[in-house]
Amino acid sequence: SQTIHQWPATLVQPVGSPLSLECTVEGTSNPNLYWYRQAAGRGLQLLFYSVGIGQISSEVPQNLSASRPQDRQFILSSKKLLLSDSGFYLCAWSVRYGYLDFDTEAFFGQGTRLTVV
Amino acid sequence: GDSVTQMEGPVTLSEEAFLTINCTYTATGYPSLFWYVQYPGEGLQLLLKATKADDKGSNKGFEATYRKETTSFHLEKGSVQVSDSAVYFCAPTGGGNKLTFGTGTQLKVEL
């Protein structure tokens, strides 16, 4: 069966420090991968998505970057964190299917609560 | 691109009350429609889905019908419980490599 692992679950980092959040998927091949951020009491903001190794699309200009070094690994990074980077980060995957080219349902990790202090 | 309009919350109901959370969408192609639920401190999980017009998705007493003519996918439950308290997200998936979510509707169910 397919599973998704996201870590760490919680993280407290000082302003200006680097960030690396990792997400790995098991049990599927060539998934679409996503990073979302959820500010307190708000909806999901799509940050990055990837349809293949080394292919990253950025949705919102910001202090973050993403990489996909392997098919089932997705990493969210920052060189210098800002206070505004605090939030709940969610990794997700889906599989594209069909000639109409749309996604199946999405599967989410448990999330990382990032607090920048 | 795809977009979703979801009713704003929070929605506060008494236990056993009837629930409706409205969702309308715009999407290219022939989208599937999904409702996800997020319990406190967790990621999202699929609640129900419908893959074509007039399909009804259902799970845990929740239902939603794919209405192509009104581009809607409203979530309903006849009798809510305290354990249903969560945030609910509507999401169409059409072509385009990315999943679009509504802003989420927080539901609070009180005794």
Oligomer: heterodimer
**Cα-atom Rg of chain B, whole angstroms?**
13 Å
Beta content of chain B comes to over 45%
Low-confidence stretches of chain A: none
String of helices and strands of chain A: EEEEEEEEEEEEE
* Structural class category of chain A: mainly beta
Architecture blueprint of SSEs:
The complex is a heterodimer of chains A (117) and B (111).
Chain A: E1 3-7, E2 10-13, E3 19-26, E4 32-38, E5 44-52, E6 55-58, E7 65-70, E8 73-78, E9 87-94, E10 96-97, E11 102-103, E12 107-108, E13 112-116
Parallel strand pairs in A: 2-13
Antiparallel strand pairs in A: 1-3, 3-8, 4-5, 4-9, 5-6, 7-8, 9-12, 9-13, 10-11
Chain B: E1 3-6, E2 11-14, E3 19-21, E4 23-26, E5 32-38, E6 44-50, E7 56-59, E8 62-65, E9 75-77, E10 86-93, E11 105-110
Parallel strand pairs in B: 2-11
Antiparallel strand pairs in B: 1-4, 3-9, 5-6, 5-10, 7-8, 8-9, 10-11
Salient structural properties:
heterodimer; A: 117 residues; four-stranded antiparallel beta sheet; B: 111 residues; mainly beta; five-stranded mixed beta sheet; 49% strand
Report on the architecture of this protein:
- The complex is a heterodimer of chains A (117) and B (111).
- Chain A is mainly β and 117 residues long.
- Chain A is built from no helices and 13 strands.
- In chain A, strand 4 (32-38) and strand 5 form a beta hairpin.
- Chain A is globular and about 40 Å long.
- In chain B, 0% of the residues lie in helices and 49% in strands.
- Chain B is built from no helices and eleven strands.
- In chain B, the strands form three sheets. Chain B has a five-stranded mixed sheet, with no helix packed on it. Chain B has a four-stranded antiparallel sheet with strand order 3-9-8-7, with no helix packed on it. A two-stranded antiparallel sheet of chain B has the order 1-4.
- Chain B is globular and about 45 Å long.
- The model of chain B has no long low-confidence stretch (mean pLDDT 89).
